[in-house]
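Saturday, quiet lab. Running sequence design on the structure tokens for the scaffold JK sent over.
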């Protein structure tokens, strides 16, 4: 990738982090007081994301290796670097995927060509989102097993709607894996007002290249199902591991913390945040989701405040690391 593009990604990212730091919704003295109260659990929350990112990187590298007929064109540590940087850019751009995925494609292109780079990045993005739906379905099952006897009519309706939404998402992605997703997605966006005709022109001008990407997407599920399910399992396990973040934070308040309740909280908050996907760095969405969940579960409101704060600090830390990695360790 040309140095000017890396500088552009870095500049946009640093500007977003600066805006986020300047618009913190509590005084810095209060932030520091909460950090001191957290003690060793804040470093534990930050370090927890090292194995999570490594699992994400391994899941993506499985797809990269499968998309390339020769031995792996790129090492694991470089994939890990691109994974962290890509997620940092995704987190600070509205609608997500508008920063990290183009960056990853541009960085991968010298190693394996534009078409294969694009297909591997799209495949991994699909796998990452697909694991969201699998995680939400799993959490619905956990909720029914633990709290099925407390169901009310409004809650039952919400669970049915959430289940149908997740099943629809699973079906959509399975169809995409079988027949390709790039062209179908562009055709859907071509019906949107204002931007629809631009998307339609793009699909028509690059139809041949997009078709090649779709063929490579479909080939993974059809020809290498073991790679598909290994990658999906790694992404799903990374989500289960991520639930320990909430458990570590709640250990600040009490040692009697159920992992399964933390899983349900994480599932609810992630669903709430993804419904408001257009907000950069999910500013306020996670805190709002935590507030709703803690009130619904009759928990202390301070749980949600401190959890939202420490999670936000962890995001700022890893976003900053990811932005620095954009300029570090690049081959000429």
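Result came back. Writing it out in full:
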């Amino acid at each position: 990738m040309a140095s000017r593009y890396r500088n552009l990604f870095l500049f946009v990212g640093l500007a977003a982090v600066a805006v986020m730091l300047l618009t913190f919704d509590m005084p810095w003295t209060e932030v520091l007081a909460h950090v001191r109260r957290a003690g060793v659990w804040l470093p534990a929350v930050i370090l927890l994301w090292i194995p999570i990112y490594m699992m994400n990187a391994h899941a993506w590298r499985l797809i990269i290796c499968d998309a390339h007929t020769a031995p792996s064109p790129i090492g694991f540590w470089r994939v890990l670097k691109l994974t962290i940087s890509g997620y940092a850019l995704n987190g600070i751009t509205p609608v997500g995927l508008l920063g990290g995925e183009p960056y990853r494609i541009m960085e991968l292109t010298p190693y394996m060509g534009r078409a294969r780079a694009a297909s591997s990045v799209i495949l991994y993005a699909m796998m990452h989102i697909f694991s969201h739906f699998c995680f939400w379905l799993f959490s619905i099952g956990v909720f029914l097993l633990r709290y099925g006897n407390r169901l009310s009519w409004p809650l039952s309706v919400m669970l049915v709607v959430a289940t149908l939404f997740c099943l629809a998402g699973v079906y959509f992605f399975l169809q995409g894996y079988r027949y390709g997703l790039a062209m179908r997605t562009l055709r859907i966006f071509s019906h949107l007002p204002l931007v629809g005709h631009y998307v339609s022109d793009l699909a028509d001008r690059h139809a041949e290249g997009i078709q090649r990407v779709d063929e490579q997407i479909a080939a993974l599920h059809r020809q290498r199902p073991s790679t598909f399910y290994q990658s999906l399992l790694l992404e799903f396990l990374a989500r289960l591991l991520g639930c320990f973040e909430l458990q570590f934070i709640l250990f600040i308040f009490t040692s009697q913390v159920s992992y399964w309740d933390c899983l349900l909280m994480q599932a609810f908050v992630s669903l709430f945040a993804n419904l408001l996907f257009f907000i950069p760095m999910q500013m306020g969405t996670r805190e709002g989701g935590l507030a709703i969940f803690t009130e619904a579960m009759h928990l202390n409101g301070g749980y949600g405040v401190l959890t939202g704060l420490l999670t936000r600090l962890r995001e700022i830390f890893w976003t900053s690391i990811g932005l620095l990695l954009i300029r570090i360790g690049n081959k000429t």
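Notes for JK: Residues 95 and 318 are 19 Å apart (CA to CA). The radius of gyration is 21 Å. Ask whether to fix the surface positions before the next round.
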